[in-house]
């Protein structure tokens, strides 16, 4: 048995001793931070510490004589390898005969036993599901204990970095103006207080940014809003002199981040409290709920009003976003040139190609960080939508086939996201057919004309139709919203075709920006994705209503080496030529290197 497996067994043994001490029969550890962020910092990697599996999705459940880890199909092989010999059993989610965590606990826990978990890292929806299912066996939940705190002696610290303030002129609206809008929204639902838990909403509202979540420029925080107070719960060490002076000036009262639960427990709400259950962890929800019951006030579960305000960009934000996207597109264009002119001549792997692009982006003015870890996938690896190359595990990029690169940056002025699939050598006729249909779908979506009131579900078929016409589909949404100097994924709007019971949809409004990213993924062969970001704009108004459309924000060449006009309708050819003319006109002035400029002219020629 490897020494690593002995270590895991020892850790589990110490955890079980703590469980027995606190009367906990089963203990659950998911993959999340206190705010359900997209990326969890090392402090939160409790599940990994106790079972060895380090994939991005999984939940570990431990009993006195049982340990099971649930994960999805992306990670079955990895989890099996990493947990070999640890005594932790793998539960392959969604496979026939495999119980869900709730089902397993219901079947195996005895009446009157206790399930424990840190309620700050479990969403309210999951917590309520467990509570409902297990109540039939009188199983109680203990949700205020983070047992890792007592076992994991060399645990990394909670993320804590200096916060910084964005000037109002960069944001287009001051904190005071945004707060006034939020209070108006509170009045509409008769709420006297509002608890805000979502990090990017808090940062957007306050015009404060930070570095507490990888690739998301946010701070760990809660905000409590009344008609005359704004309290921001943050780690004291993060508050710089500049941030403190700003908070004093604009009327933000600062309290310690860890005081949020005791603050709620001691609060004297003088009316109903607005909160968003989707964005509130289970411990916060239960604490809030108990206090509301005690004071006989109602909890108003509605979408955070900041969500839509944040999604509809103001004129300043849009102006800055357009400029940032142009510079980012020019840098990507230079990278595509670099790949095409160096493949087969210098040693190039998926990882070194990503490093090259990341370093090029970092040269741009106002660069803050990557908006997500760059996906660089060669040939068959690109068929895996969640593929991630590492320094030690990256395919060599040879002068044949294609390289898919999905990347983006956060700058003072915007957050970008773009995918191009680059031809690096000979490709088959089938690949050209798939590539051409993908491009046609992206351009067709960007050219959509639609009436005000449409949601992304009304429009998604624009992107899929060329692929559906050849009997192909892709297993992900076509588009997501993007933050302003914030998270690369944000709602409430999206482009998706599938109907889901009870899932709310958001109407597309002028000022929203959304990705447009159809693709083809053929296992073991190739993967193609072409992604532009598009802005919702007004087109015209008449007796039938207001017509909206999209403008491109991304201006980077489509690879003509993979285009076969036999698979294009005349209108698609026209759209590609029109787009490429805009790419050359807008991007060439930003490129200094004459060789790249000359290449771009040829790469965007009319076909």
What does this structure look like?
The protein has 607 residues and is α+β, with helices and mostly antiparallel strands. The protein has three domains: 149 residues, Creatinase/prolidase N-terminal domain (Creatine Amidinohydrolase, Chain A, domain 1, 3-Layer(aba) Sandwich), CATH 3.40.350; 146 residues, Creatinase/prolidase N-terminal domain (Creatine Amidinohydrolase, Chain A, domain 1); 292 residues, Creatine Amidinohydrolase (Alpha-Beta Complex). It contains 19 helices and 28 strands. The strands form eight sheets. The protein has a six-stranded mixed sheet, sandwiched between helices. Helix 5 links the parallel strand 5 and strand 6. The model has no long low-confidence stretch (mean pLDDT 96).
Summary of the model, kept short:
The chain is α+β, with helices and mostly antiparallel strands. The protein contains 19 helices and 28 strands.
CATH architecture of the largest domain: Alpha-Beta Complex
What is the CATH superfamily label of the largest domain?
Creatinase/methionine aminopeptidase superfamily
Would you give the CATH topology of the largest domain? Creatine Amidinohydrolase
Q: Indicate the multimeric state.
A: single chain
State the low-pLDDT regions, or none: none
Helical fraction: 25-40%
Question: Average pLDDT value?
Answer: 96
First-to-last CA distance: 62 Å
For the biggest sheet, the summary is: 6 strands, mixed
- Tell me, what's the shape? globular
- Report the structural category: alpha+beta
Provide the spatial order of strands within the biggest beta sheet: 4-3-2-1-5-6
- Residue fraction in strands: 15-25%
Count of helix runs? 19
Number of strands: 28
Domain Peptidase M24 C-terminal: 546-607
Family: Belongs to the peptidase M24B family.
GO molecular function, one term: metalloaminopeptidase activity
Protein name: Metallopeptidase M24 family
